[in-house]
Protein 1
Amino acid sequence: MSAEFSVSMSPLPRELLVAGCQDLGWLNGEQPPDPVSPGSWGAFRDRISTRVTAIEYSDGQLDVTVPVGAALEDCDLALGIVRRVAAAAGADIGTEAGTLTINELDEVFGASWKHEQLESAARTVIHLLRQRGGPIAMPGPTRSVYVGERVASELESGDPEAIGDRLVAVARRVLWPDSRYESAAQLTATNPRSGEEFSLTMLLPERACVLPAADRIAVDDPQGAFMIPRSALEHLPVEAAFLDDRNQLVEPVSASVWPDLCRVARAYEIS
């Protein structure tokens, strides 16, 4: 379960949200004004966070939510914001454990809680995966992390007490690959004849990329782009590796090899 914290302060200086966070990022580049006005935002730490911390301000009350599966640093980010605002306002903090002082907050939501929520998240997502029979998406700062049987097997290998650490490692691998890999865009399209809706991404020559969890891939053939099912990628002359159960890291295909890739891909073309 996510953890929610609330504290009242009006007006609310933005500095209390960002103090000491040199690597702080905001979802979609949208950040709160100064002073903070009513609204909602998503905060994360660049190349560190595994989930997005939800921040909402309304009627003089700040609500901060730590999602399930948040890294320890994400917990520290959220608790740091709440702690600074509570100290500046001289206010107590509303939590799932009741109304707490700053000292009580640190006792209840300390290191043990941070590790326990991570371990619980890993075990819960595996349970949900097997209950529902398909990958579970965990939205993050750059893309969703998909936990299916491939990732579940990785999580369940090794020391059971370190399962939460392994979840963080998988998430960071998916969310923060080497900067040379572009994020391939994902679009939603509709078949004009059948009305079927599907997700689509594009494979381009000479581009290292993270291929998202799309149903189909558009191949950029000089003779005319065409679509193939996502599953056909494994049959093409391209080096690709799964980061989780849906996202793949794709190495660049040289211009000299690209015609051969298009020729092979044509056998899987969706008409």
Note: The chain has a mean pLDDT of 96.
Protein 2
Amino acid sequence: MTNLFELYRSPEAPISHVNWAWNMYGAGVENIGRLGKPESLPVPSPASDQLLVRVDAVSLCLSDVKLITQGGKHPKLYDRDLAKEPTRLGHEVSLTVMQVGEKLQKQFQPGQRLAIQPDIYQNGKSTAYGYTIPGGLIQFHLIGDEVMQGDAGSYILPIDGEIGYAEAALTEPWACVTAAYTQRRRLTPKPGGAMWILGRPGDLTEYQFSAHLHAPATIIVTDIPAGLLSRIEKEVTTREAILIVRDNLPLMDYPALRREFGGGFDDIVYLDPRSAQCVSAAARLIARRGTFNLVGRTPLDGNPQIDVGRIHYDYTAYLGTCGSDIAAAYGEVRNRCELRSGGVAIFVGAGGPMGQMHLQRALEMPNGPATILATDVNDVRLDALRARFRPLARKCDKRLVISNSANESLYEFVMRETNQCGVDDSVVCVPSSKVMEETAQTLSHDGMLVLFAGVSNGTFASLNLSDVYLHNAQFTGTSGSALADQLSVIRSTLAGELSPNQSVAAIGGIEAALDGIRAMMAGRYPGKIIIFPQIRGLPLTSLPELKTTAPKVAEHLVAGDVWTRDTESALIEKFWKP
């Protein structure tokens, strides 16, 4: 070997005798590590069906804050006593295989690069690497069936090709961004599900249901026109389906109806809606991944209160049509999920780590929006946006306008920049129902609101659902990613179509992990914090600070203080001690 970096990448790279780790023993940052420091653990040996992996990089993620706050009460820990059975943060990782158990030697070899899709299901139960399964804030650990034998097969993703360690760790958060623009909502009635169709007494519209009426096993109808009732009666007589008529149902009885049908309806169809209060009440009856189909020609008398937490976490879908064919509301043709080509998009909270990824994606999209608006309330983050993304906007021939939304209202900013037309797409990266509601008001009539940041279920915001059925507005939200999303990011990175390194804002060695977690929680850096567990003695350092503390490393940064693979190899050359 001619240099340390080549040794580091090789199958002959040494395995240290100590194994520094940040185990988590309870809720709160004070319970990460021992007395604020990592602890030394033995390096384990793999069993025949296990791999020993080296953790090369960990990208710190704000979603860990919920785990830090709740400890063993986090939903994915199932009331685990962390004092007796600790977990470990770090679900966005880059790994290298060091030793291979006998049964796996045809599949893996030392020196092989890996990433992990952390959202794992086993026998239908949700687990997660970095949550249920201890994560990557450690130098070496074992991987076995808990990751390689899930419901979707193996959740390990081989990295074949030239991708940096930070880039590989960032494929998971980038996959979450990618997932936000792939269809996660169910857009047709659920086969075998329960459908509730409710109407308005006196409505004389001759409704059609040209498709999908065969799907539900149970149909409950309330105050619908006689002609539609007759069609439904004919449909259910041709198959083993149940029809229940519940006319004159007062709002106060809606919760009881939900309980009667197992916690909600898979599909709700609301005919000729007029009352925002009634729509608000009916929308509470949607089951997880349920659809709410509004069919009408008259605007509501106001904006309903909608559970925005459920749009994000439960993928509840609001569909609609202004025609008389109920089926016309369904399907992907009418329900888009991608940014509008040539349109105007706004990213709220664009200065945060994930907001920057959304912004970068929009700028680099060949057929993406032509005008991109970006807002934040932090001047440091906004300065970083200008330095990093204005050159990219010029390169991609996109119009980029950046504003501090603490200085002027979001609505005024958007209306000024769009000639009072509103935006085609609003992407919210701030976990605030007030911000979500304010952002929704900036949409054009047929715009799309993407709720990327999650607020808890049961959090409501006023949304203009009239535009859903009158003008085809969209309200979407996603949480997490899937194997296919992460594979797509890996392919795009290898093809040179995506540069995850653009997201890196600060770095540190294994001892700096706790400082990094605190900095992430405080929003101290305008981007992602990357921990390199194999490096010792490197404090948490912003990329601009590298020019002073490690100038030989910093000279490999590119314009805007952007991390590169050459920067990473120089870092390992300087700080890694085999």
Note: The chain has three domains: 4-180+484-575, 194-329, 344-456.
Protein 3
Amino acid sequence: MLRLWDHQQEFVAANLCTKVLAQFGDLQSAFVHFTHKENGQFIVCSEFCQMLLDAEIGLSRNAAADFTFSIDTDRTSSITFPEFAKRFRKQFGIATAMPEVSRFVRRLGDAIYANKPIHMKKELLQGAWTTLPKTTEGNVDMNGLGEVLKRLKIECSEDIKIGIFNYINSSGSGQISEKEFRKAFAFRALESNAVLRVFTLVQKYSHDLGIAFVSADSVGNGVVDEEEFVSAVESIFEVKNINDVPEADITALFRAIADDHDTLRYHSAMSQFRITFK
């Protein structure tokens, strides 16, 4: 049986959650929709597998089966709601991030970048990180985030503060690491309207682009380099008959959002494309 790499499984989960959110609104309603019609208490694995194929998210039959049975942890050939919720809760939370949270995250990003040019991204993020109040482990906890918001005179509800923290703390560890901080705010390094337009198009066609990234990933490790990124984006733009985007603007976008200036972990990037700064 074909084994999906972890990054591909997360991509499948993210895309499925995006579709679920649009169609059903919440995980419980989606589960009820997918359940066996005569029973209503569980999802039959074979039916769920067929649903994945019908959803056209770039899976072969073997890959769809592999993903389905990764949810069925008790190996009963059926999926209960606890199994369903456990597998999709994190990605669904990302997909349903409140617009208010994105707005406040953007304000934090604006404070970091302050209209500085893109080539200073690394230095600006490093400088901002060094000023944050840290725990003894060298990370930022909820209290530390609260101090930062007070410094910047950003007033928000406790729910919004928790949402901001969870947005940045993508691992769910309860403490924001430097790597999570950099990733959360790397997307603010967009300095021109031309690059911002490419970013907007990438958001719009994130589903198609995610599949193109999987195809372009020559090593199969969830990472694309600049050439692979540009090729994947251009292939989708060609299919969508978007012919007026210069390659230089796509390259500039890659350099703005990549973890460094060499590679991009596209499965985590795709989640951020869906919810960031709309």
Note: The chain has a mean pLDDT of 77.
